[in-house]
Amino acid sequence: MSKKTLIVIDMQNDFVDQALGTPEAVAIVENVKKKIAEFSSRGDEIIFTQDTHGENYLETNEGKHLPVVHCVDGTEGWKIYEGLEVKDAKYIKKYSFGFTGWKDYNLEDVELVGLCTDICVVSNALIIKALYPEIPVKVDSSCCAGVTPDSHKAALETMKMCQIEVY
User: Fold this and answer.
1) How many CB atoms are closer than 10 A to CB 162?
2) Could you tell me which of 1, 28, 35 has the C-alpha nearest to residue 136?
3) CA atoms of 118 and 141, how far apart (whole Å)
4) Separation between Cα atoms, residue 152 and residue 118, nearest integer Å
5) What is the pLDDT of residue 1?
6) Count of domains in the chain?
7) Which domain holds residue 93?
8) What pLDDT, on the 0 to 100 scale, is given for residue 117?
9) Cα–Cα–Cα angle for 156, 51, 124, nearest 5°?
10) Beta strand 165-166 pairing with 90-94
11) Which residues share a beta bridge with 72?
12) Residue 144, preceding bond cis, omega within 30 degrees?
């Protein structure tokens, strides 16, 4: 039996209901809580990523394209949304859309949930699928939200085309 890993992408205050929050992001919180509880109850691995920026965010390439200060390391907006954290989970500071260190995690069977479907979820799903082409990589669409509903749907379709199981 393979090791199952839940990767919770950027479920941080700034993406749920603060600087870049959306009603769609707020709407998935309970689904994400249930998913975390399911994996936790089985003793599966849980990894949280945290979009992480510095005080100079607006001077970065990303900041020039998205001029909204968010997820500055250590701020309230950077923290994982209340009620989602898990004591024994791993927490990864992610300094770009996609985390490039997945190769060091010996992943075997992965499910991704979180925010934003059309930026960080799709980026990480594609990186993981490229690094581990033979493992199951899944995305629960009821536990993800995009910048807009249309871009959310487009990202889900992109992932399906890249052999990521979307349900």
Assistant:
1) 13
2) 1
3) 11
4) 5
5) 78
6) 1
7) 4-166
8) 98
9) 35
10) unpaired
11) 53
12) no
Q: Which pair of structure tokens corresponds to residue 132? A: 């581990």
Identity (one letter) of the amino acid at 118? D
Print the SS3 string covering the chain: CCCEEEEEECCEHHHHCCCCCCHHHHHHHHHHHHHHHHHHHHCCEEEEEEECECCCHHHCHHHHHCCCCCCECCCHHHCECCCCCCCCCEEEEECCCCCHHHHHCCCCEEEEEEECHHHHHHHHHHHHHHHCCCCCEEEEEEEEECCCHHHHHHHHHHHHHCCCEEC
CATH number at residue 8: 3.40.50.850
pTM above 0.90, yes or no: yes
What is the 3-class SS of 78-90, one letter each residue?
A: HCECCCCCCCCCE
pLDDT given for residue 2 in this prediction: 86
In the chain, which stretches have pLDDT less than 50? none
Convert the pLDDT of each residue in 94-133 to its tens digit. Answer: 999 999 999 999 999 999 999 999 999 999 999 999 999 9
Rounded to a whole number, what is the distance in angstroms from the first to the last CA of the chain? Answer: 22
Q: Choose among 4, 10, 1: nearest CA to 93.
A: 10
